[in-house]
Design brief:
By secondary structure, the protein is mainly α. It has helices at residues 3-16, 23-35, 46-51, 56-72. The chain has one domain (3-72).
Length: 73
């Protein structure tokens, strides 16, 4: 797991905890805040998605890892 992605996901969950309602929302926030993917409420830039967006699997894996760490504390 990339430590940078782990820190970024932790930041999103700590900052927007009550507003992140789904994994899809988490992915979109990550792309917007950290990857610079151009998007609005209806459109995601295809070139940005293809060249900038972090793989959703990595974002969700980071979330699961953080949840496991929190459960073990």
């Amino acid at each position: 797991m990339d430590n940078k992605i782990l820190k970024q996901v932790k930041y999103i969950l700590d900052t927007y905890n009550n507003k992140v309602k789904s994994d899809k929302h988490l992915i979109l926030l990550h792309w917007q805040l950290f990857d610079g993917v151009d998007m609005n409420k209806q459109i995601i830039s295809t070139p940005d998605f293809l060249s900038k967006a972090t793989d959703p699997e990595l974002i969700i894996s980071a979330k699961h890892m953080l949840e496991a760490i929190r459960c073990s504390e």
